[in-house]
Amino acid sequence: MSSKIQEMLEGRNDVIDYAAVIKKYPWIVERDQDCILSPDSDGLLCGLFMSHHLNWKVRGFYDGKILVLQKGFKARDCVFLDMEIFRKEIKSVGQHMVMYNHRRLPPNWNNFDNCISINNLRGHDGYHDFRLKYPFATIHFLVGLIGSIQNIEISKRAIAPILFADGTWMTMVQYTENSLSWLKYLRAEEKGTALNKIFLNKHYSVHELMLAMNDFLRARDAISIPRERGDRVTITLRGGEGTPHNLVLEEENFYLLNQDAKKRAERFLALLSKLTGWSYNIANWSWNKWQLSQFTKGDFTGTSLSNRSFDAFIAKNPLSFAMTGSQNIEFTIEHPDELS
Q: What is the pTM assigned to this prediction?
């Protein structure tokens, strides 16, 4: 008797049409765009990748509690990478589950018109398909997307840091059936593609990959300090109320990342650059003259997730959100500040 996950996957032989995605969202392959990153390893890899291949400029970071954005730039003129922004005028790319029920979309669902959400592209929602949600990181989706129009070299040394993002290397083992389904959807099984070089590579045995990952983790740990892992830019502390961290007022109403935090971030970016071959061009990254916006983070703790509660939640016009469990949504509301 087949398991539930196998029953859910039965008959799913769809594959992504990268050309159609690019036609609908042509800005994703345009050069010299400004972008805002999530401040973790996935976001940093996305920024490094897009900066190297398309000369994108990193203007700031957003972690769901605060946004730091370079002086003179507006959020609506930037692409948010590794998050879905629920504003129709803002471009974003993400891999989180955001749709609750595809059979009854809220009237303001067009707020995602400029959002490339991989789960939305495949039509997966939390009500019917939570166990089938995208299991990898945003960087893998971007590599597949950009790699469909230009050659992306993936060296042996690049595989460990790319599979590290969002714990992908562990997810592949823990959620094998779903991971295989998504590899087929992303066309990673097609020889010669960048994703094929990552996921179906001939470089590593399982043991060799474990050794390469261990080396990468030790290099990451050498950058870490208490409460701050070396694979992220910490602008608020986990579990906190969104109080700015590592940010120093440099002039009236503008901030910079303190020197110790900046050195750690650049050490990690240098490590990623060395392993992937994606150059870290300091001129493309902003670390100071940041405008600071603070928001309110919340979740569905104590609230039953249903069609009705989701509709009531969406009516509040959240800035961003993600289903982090079958019965929970983490979200951000524009308060006390509004998006600049």
A: 0.96
